[in-house]
């Protein structure tokens, strides 16, 4: 039945990690989530005069009642220093020590009396930190310098899909993996207590599976090798075999600027022993490539862990692939792209290593908690078992033509819209038409997610209303939200443009209630729980081949929103499950984008041949939406014409045509709601329970269990019976 894992480690850092932790507990997997306990979160976003302003997110200022400090498990983490070689092997000496203090948060499973743990590490300076300064009389400076150590867990880097090679970031990445691996090693050794002789690590991969969530925890690979070789005194080949069987790697992006590449000089200073280990891993790897392709120097260069172009750097994705037994993308299309393009050489070498694990979301939060009206309606129709088996939503297909169910689904949506309208009117002082279509585009602000394409549609709708105010028009409330990385100039300009367009549209008496534009300030999970249940139309419009998966698209689908989107990320599988005819699909496919890259993309051609696009761009360029600063959006239009990697103009015409189909269907509430029901019924695949089951059985080698652990107040016999059943399973 597979292995019994001591722990499965998911390094936190991505939005759906919390869904995965919920599913692992619900599926009865003995799992830990590890990460850093940042004092300050990403940032609180304020919109002032249409601009994003960042404020510190001091989320711990009132304490956290759910966490428990565990000082008894505090661990040392080393930095800097040098490497001493002797006949006993390498020794990392003269290091600077930072202490990792663990804080545990319980992760309960759903109705099964299982509670897993999320352990987050906080950096603490040791008492003797910089005591040399104290010895020469500068006690005050010695105490102040403790901040240098504790800064490691001070703030989360907010850079989105852009790698920035800062020393503090590398410290954070090593800090979490070094503390985590010590924690894992302690538990593994404790499980071996009572056995005679030295601890054998032969069974380590049977007891421990470590899933690397993107490249941020990649330093775990050389760190585990250091522990095995330098501390536990295993020979290199044995240590390497165990390490590869322990790790698996999930890739989350194909954007080249997002892939981590750490400079050799920085690694040599901060983690000198790890750099030596990486070099040795690379040498063994290149020896294998050379033996297979002795004349192919180009391939050897492409597959090396060490890149030479523009300064020597370690390619962390290559390190993850070489040091893992399994590599996966997070949607079928994404996994195919990393196999056939991004990591093609590695896939050709070891095709069996590459897999797909389509992302998922937990229905406990993203339906039961945030949309109780719909959750109750579904439970009345098909029973409550769907909460732990989302595939049962397929039973709703039997009710697609049921007038009573159609009416009830429509009423739940309208109730959610009324509730959210009141929230918007209170927060933004804008009168909302709750009968209008709620057209929602909420996600991080990035060029590839193409909020600009949505903005051009808003301008086009505005111009159509102004041109013929008495013509029939399907009222819309366009809601956009998301944070821009503080250093990402274009993303901040996109926010400013959307808010400027919104200000003109919302104040125009000719437009009235036909069109409103709201920019949601400080978009976050608690706000998502309000907006997603109220959404009619979900915008998932990234350029084909750029979105790894997306999970927002799944949340909207589950909550009864219809999707307008490109064939990108998980949209492809959503269309497979629901039927492409039950989504609004538009735009270029991956192969079209690739062909355009070869032929060349000329934005001016589209601008000159599409009158409504030309009008919208001319208005933005001329300062129509910002008359006091007419040159304000020149950077945006210049980017769209001259270096738009994401080809906004190429998809504009098809997007506008598709939006007209959306309007047409929205005018037929019964047919719209029938399509909504079909989408909800098709969303079962996108449960994180399914995702984690796939990881468990196909990567970690362990089977989920549906056994319910009796509560502590039940007789001892019940606990013994459960333990017996678990052992047999």
Automatic annotation (TrEMBL):
Q: What is its EC number?
A: 2.4.1.1
The region called Disordered is annotated at: 706-729
Pfam hit, one: Phosphorylase
Which reaction is catalysed here? [(1->4)-alpha-D-glucosyl](n) + phosphate = [(1->4)-alpha-D-glucosyl](n-1) + alpha-D-glucose 1-phosphate
Which branch of life, at top level?
Eukaryota
Listed Basic and acidic residues bias regions: 714-729
- InterPro entries, from UniProt? Glycg_phsphrylas, Glyco_trans_35, Pyridoxal_P_attach_site
Q: Which GO terms describe its biological process?
A: glycogen catabolic process
GO MF annotation, one: glycogen phosphorylase activity
| One Gene Ontology cellular component | cytoplasm
Residues with PTM N6-(pyridoxal phosphate)lysine: 555
Instruction: Give the protein's cofactors.
Output: pyridoxal 5'-phosphate
| Key words, A-Z | Allosteric enzyme, Carbohydrate metabolism, Glycogen metabolism, Glycosyltransferase, Phosphoprotein, Pyridoxal phosphate, Transferase
Subunit structure and binding partners: Homodimer; enzymatically active. Interacts with PPP1R3B; recruits the phosphatase PP1 which dephosphorylates and inactivates PYGL/glycogen phosphorylase.
Family recorded in the similarity comment: Belongs to the glycogen phosphorylase family.
Q: What does this protein do?
A: Allosteric enzyme that catalyzes the rate-limiting step in glycogen catabolism, the phosphorolytic cleavage of glycogen to produce glucose-1-phosphate, and plays a central role in maintaining cellular and organismal glucose homeostasis.
- Tell me the protein's name: Alpha-1,4 glucan phosphorylase
Q: What's the encoding gene here?
A: PYGL
